[in-house]
Design goal:
Elements (H helix, E strand, L loop, with lengths): L1 H27 L5 E5 L8 E4 L5 E4 L6 H7 L8 E6 L5 H4 L2 H7 L1 E7 L7 H13 L3 E3 L5 E3 L4 E7 L15 E6 L2 E5 L5 H11 L7 E3 L11 H7 L3 E4 L12 H9 L3 E4 H4 L2 E5 L4 E3 L1
Parallel strand pairs: 3-4, 4-5, 5-6, 10-11, 11-12, 12-13
Antiparallel strand pairs: 1-2, 1-14, 2-3, 7-8, 8-9, 9-10, 14-15
Helix pairs in contact: 4-5
Length: 283
C-alpha cells in the first residue's frame, strides 16, 4: 500500500509539474502582433495594450471595478503584473479602477500628467501609487514610451505643466505606433486642443484607429480634427443610455462624413484590434 501511495504521489507531482511547464511556455509564446483592446467599462475609458514583446500598458481604468472583469478577459489568469499604467487625466471615469488595480497587480511604472485633483478617487489613486512604490513619470509632448518590438507611444499633449487647469484640457493625447499602423488616443481632450494639434501636427495626426474624444461628446471631434486624423475606425467608449447623451448625433454625423467605421463599447462590448505593423484588423 505504501509503494502504491508513493507512486500516486509521484504521478500527481509529475502531472502538476508538467502543467506548470506548459503554462510557462504558453505565457512566454507571445503572438507577433500588437494587441489593443478598448475595454467595456461603461461610461469611461480603459484601453489595454500588449506589444509583440509582451509589454503591457493600461491607459485609463474606467469609473469603477468593472475594469477588473474586463482585464480578466484580456490577460492570463496567471498574469498578475502590468508593466505600466497611464492616467490621461484625473477625472473619476478615467482613474476609478486604478486604486484596486494597484492593489491587485504588480505595476512597473506609473505615467501621468501634472494635473491633480482633491476628489476621493484621486486621493485613493495617489495613495495606492505610493503604496506600490512604482516609479512615476510626468508625460509631456515629445516623450516616447518604448513598448518593445518596434512599438512606441508618442506623447503629443500636454506640451507644458498644466497644474490647476481644467482636467479635460490637460488630457494626455498620444499616438500608438507600430510599423505603418497607428492608434490616436485622445482622453477627453476638447476642441481647442484638437485645433492646437491640427495646427502644429497637421496630417501627422493621421491614424487608422481613433479613440473618439470625451466619449463622443460634442465638446470634441471637430470636423477639422477628424479630417486630419482620417481614421478607418472610430471607437466610442461610453455607457449605454448614459445621462450625458453620448455619443452626440453631431459627432456621429462628423464621423460618418469622413466614412469612418463607428464602433461603440455600448453596442459591441470590448473592441479588439490587432496589428502586424502593416495592417490593423478588427478582431
Amino acid at each position: 500500500m505504501k509503494i502504491k501511495s508513493l507512486l500516486w504521489v509521484l504521478v500527481i507531482v509529475l502531472t502538476i509539474s508538467n502543467a506548470v511547464i506548459w503554462v510557462s511556455i504558453l505565457q512566454g509564446a507571445k503572438d507577433p502582433v500588437l494587441k489593443v483592446s478598448f475595454l467595456n467599462v461603461g461610461q469611461g475609458d480603459a484601453i489595454f495594450i500588449e506589444s509583440p514583446s509582451g509589454i503591457q500598458l493600461l491607459v485609463d481604468s474606467g469609473p469603477n471595478l468593472s475594469v477588473l472583469r474586463a482585464l480578466g478577459k484580456e490577460m492570463s489568469f496567471f498574469d498578475r503584473s502590468i508593466d505600466a499604467i497611464l492616467a490621461t487625466h484625473p477625472d473619476a471615469d478615467h482613474i476609478g479602477g486604478f486604486p484596486e488595480i494597484l492593489k491587485r497587480y504588480k505595476v512597473g511604472n506609473v505615467l501621468l500628467t501634472s494635473n491633480e485633483s482633491q476628489t476621493p478617487v484621486f486621493l485613493a489613486y495617489r495613495s495606492e501609487i505610493l503604496n506600490e512604490g512604482a516609479p512615476s513619470k510626468e508625460l509631456l509632448r515629445g516623450n516616447i514610451v518604448d513598448l518593445g518590438a518596434g512599438v512606441f507611444l508618442e506623447i503629443l499633449f500636454p506640451d507644458r505643466n498644466l497644474s490647476g487647469a481644467d482636467p479635460n484640457t490637460s488630457s494626455v493625447v498620444a499616438r500608438l505606433v507600430y510599423g505603418e499602423t497607428s492608434f490616436l488616443l485622445t482622453g477627453d481632450s476638447p476642441i481647442k486642443i484638437e485645433n492646437f494639434l491640427s495646427l502644429i501636427d497637421g496630417t501627422n495626426l493621421k491614424a487608422g484607429v481613433l479613440k473618439v474624444g470625451h466619449h463622443g461628446s460634442r465638446t470634441s471631434s471637430s470636423k477639422a480634427f477628424l479630417s486630419a486624423v482620417s481614421p478607418e475606425y472610430a471607437v466610442i467608449s461610453a455607457g449605454c443610455n448614459n445621462r450625458y447623451g453620448h455619443p452626440h448625433k453631431e459627432v456621429v454625423a462628423n464621423l460618418s462624413e469622413i466614412e469612418s467605421e463607428i464602433l461603440s463599447t455600448c453596442e459591441s462590448g470590448t473592441i479588439r484590434f490587432e496589428s502586424d505593423g502593416k495592417v490593423v484588423v478588427l478582431k
